[in-house]
Amino acid sequence: MERYGTIASVTFGQISLPLPISVRLRRRAEPQPASGDGDAFTTSVQLDRRLIGVEVRIRGTAAAEDLSLGQKAPLSIQLSPTRSGQAGRTVSISDAVLTGIELQYEQTAPATAKLDFLAEATDGNTDPFAAQEPQQ
Asked: pLDDT band at residue 136, thresholds of 50, 70 and 90?
């Protein structure tokens, strides 16, 4: 199993999100458990629509200040390899919608920004999430 080191870069459309600190990706679906009247335990679990969320923390607050809520673009995260000869990895969301911007200015630490995104599918069945080695 390959491991990856640092975040090499994060881009939102044509905008570079500078000095990335962390990226948190959530892929989830709400469960809909079901069972019969006489069952003591759940006998069937189906999943509601899938939700993909991404949280990006950066030190480049000026870039975050220029973004607008509701802005939509591809989101791409480039991960560096951990050893020589290994390829990096690209994690991408084909259409990410910016849903939250949180700026934090502290007295004793560098300013940071937290950007929240939700994935939007081009149609109801195409997964907007992809993770792969970059093309050479």
From this structure: very low
